[in-house]
Amino acid sequence: MDFGIAGDSALVTASSSGLGLASAIALAEEGANVAICSRDDARLAAAEKRVDQAGRGDVLAVEADITDPDHVKAFVEQTVAEFGGLDHVVTSAGGPPSGPFLDTLERDWYAAYDMLVMSAVWTAKAAQPHLEQSGAGTFVAITSLSVREPVEGLVLSNSVRKAVIGLVKTLSREFAPKIRVNAVLPGAHETARFTELIEQGVERGDLADYEEGLENWAEDIPLNRIGDPRELGDVVAFLSSERSSYVTGVSLPIDGGKLRS
User: Three-state SS for 193?
Assistant: First the structure.
């Protein structure tokens, strides 16, 4: 299926690894010009190479901290200057520290809010006029299944990410009809963040090894396996494409059927 976005311009935040990188690669494979960003020079360079090898369009790699509004605005402006416009935005962010409520400091809450919520707010505000001008503008926020069902030990993610869903639903109406706004709710995908959570379980003695962690995560998933980041990226590319032209305001789980709600 031709997604019809070849030659379009796309921007993906926090995209040097994980689901952000998977989304950037999927968009590049569809022929879009893709801008990626990261705070880490080495990881950014490696990601730029992977996105470039995957696609037919151009790649722009920008060092940027998505918790800094000036960095976010500059990232959007550089993308528009490089590609001559902006058609698609995908917001991604690393997961905040894990842990129970009583071990979480007040500053952790503020940091998580900036990383997960305000980064999306700043990106949407900077990108909106360009997306509106596009004629085919899309905005996709990568969040988590925890906005529907809390995940044990992830109080920050469970609590703060819900605000992104409220933002997405609101923007889907305020930005309509020229910009479509959706969210994806990833379940367990084998990313660095996922590996870190399993390794923490092994260190605590809750798991014997990594393989047991994989089995434990998969046992309550109807498809009986952990997701490949590519599977998430492909859905993001679809939601960014003209093939989903009547879809907006949706929060779509990509979790192998794990959610019961």
Answer: helix
